[in-house]
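Lecture 7 notes: from sequence to structure.

We start with a single chain of 416 residues. Read the sequence below before looking at the structure.
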Amino acid sequence: MKHKFLGYRCSLCGEEYLHEEVIYVCPQDGGNLDIIYDFDALKKTLSIESLLTSREESIWRYLALLPLGTGLEEPTAITHVGWTPIYSPARLKQVFDVSDFWVKDESCNPTASFKDRASAVVVSRAKEIKADVVVTASTGNAGAALAGMAAAADHKAVIFAPRSAPPAKIAQLLIYNATVLLVDGSYDQAFDLSIDAAEEFGWYCRNTGYNPFTLEGKKTAALEIWEQLLYPGSLKDPLHIFVSVGDGNIISGLHKGFKDLLELGWLEMMPRIYGVQSEGSAAVANTFLAGDENIIPVSANTRADSISVDLPRDGVRAVRAARQTGGKYITVSDEEIMTAIPELGQVGVFAEPAGAAAYAGYKKALIQSIVNHDAPALVLNTGSGLKDVNAAMASVKPAPVIEPTLRAIEKALNKI
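Now the structure, written as tokens:
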């Protein structure tokens, strides 16, 4: 099938570009670029039936809806990115007194986070345009995802990470044989440095909220939610989706995926998307609550390192994702995030702080009657708790140390 990727449209000024005219952001105002498809042509060549009968259980089942050339034998060597499970935990439904509640667990991805989706697409794009090196800035997950996808595709990757990133995340980067440079500064400083390096050395930059292909990778989660849960009109009311927000690219990607489905005529009701931010890193939430699109940087300070961002690079589209779908922004404290980690663990989902933040936001939305108990809802866990073991251990009581006797067992159990 002929590819239907036409070009780009600036999310701020609306200027359109052919795909060979730009690479990253709008040259006029620096706005994030949305990829444009020929949906009229897609409607003639792509059917729901052909998608639903696909035996490909990864993001590549949606290759026709991605801006990559067709005819690729295998976009990356790792094909099991995406198609992550959706659970409906009975225990939490009983606790919340709700009937329709789901958790989509992105920790099942190859490097254990949502970011594999974007990195798989970007590495495939790099191979397509014959870019030898891909670079990114990351607090850990995006870097690990890029390193893993690049390793699988026998591609070179360079990762800039703040030296404060959790050791488990840095370990992934090194194990995947990426070139890792720890920056003695913040994520935002690492972000700016990676862009400078890409320009200086001719590397292809994967940065979130900068490379338009990242959004396309992340939209695949929306396509999965539609296929796994919404088609064909399974819900009578709009689905309420809760997702943690840092740079804003994941929530923007979800929005883009659902908008693409609307353009195809395959989506009956647009879900309502709720962004959840830590109180210590709430630049997007502040903008949403102010009623405008003027993103004002903050001095981020939160235990949820994956969403700790001073200046969100995809903030405007992140604000629109909630506003245009009838959703909202919710802020949660680090204490609420840490409490959420073991609560998800009790139903078999081990979430890192950023993933638990989305669940904490859903709880708060119920308590504050932002969302009704009869509203169908889905929480997106964006990453594994193994990414930040120190945070996981801090969220629970330490295990007792006992002598190797039955008496010691009885004594310990009596204290629990």
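The chain is about 40% helix and 15% strand. Keep this in mind for problem set 3.
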